[in-house]
Amino acid sequence: MPEMTILEAAARLGVSENAVRKRIRRGSIEARKDGERWVVTIDENDQVFGSDEPGRGEDDADRDLLLDQLFREIEFLQGQIAAKDRVIDLLLGRSSEATTELSGHLRHVIDGMLGSRMTTEDPAR
């Protein structure tokens, strides 16, 4: 089995040096310390251009994880936008339901600020 540096192993496998280091830590690639440098032993059975999944590189797995995180962030932001749109609709009174809801909300806020005397007073006065 040929021995090589981490950089050479990365080039041979078609992955980053970081991916080779991860494989060394996991034990899927043999390596030993020779003085101050690592010597990597690549078996002919070690997959080229990939990780443990056929046809998939570690960079692909990292990209998939990042995409999942981005999609979750997009969903969160879409929820925030929808909530802000609802507030805008309420403030602009774009529907009778929105106007009723806004009136109730404002009444609650005013009651909290001024006490209950506004709601208990006779509205005819």
What does this structure look like?
With 125 residues, this protein is mainly alpha-helical. The chain has one domain (3-92). The chain is built from 5 helices and 3 strands; from the N terminus they run E-H-H-E-E-H-H-H. It has a 3-stranded antiparallel β-sheet with strand order 1-3-2. A hairpin with a 2-residue loop joins strand 2 (30-34) and strand 3 (37-41). Helix 1 (6-13) packs across helix 2 and helix 3 packs across helix 4. It is rod-shaped and about 80 Å long. The model is unreliable at 49-56 (pLDDT under 50).
Write a compact overview of the structure shown.
It contains five helices and three strands. The protein has 125 residues and is mainly α.
Distance between the termini: 98 Å
How many whole angstroms does the radius of gyration measure? 31 Å
Mean pLDDT rating: 75
Strand residues, percent: 5-15%
- Strands, count: 3
Q: What proportion of the residues is helical, as a percent range?
A: 55-70%
Main beta-sheet annotation = 3 strands, antiparallel
Tell me the series of helices and strands, N- to C-terminal. Answer: EHHEEHHH
Unreliable sequence segments:
49-56
Helix-strand category:
mainly alpha
- How many structural domains can be distinguished in the coordinates? 1
**Outline:** rod-shaped
The tally of helices reads 5
Physical arrangement of strands within the biggest beta sheet: 1-3-2
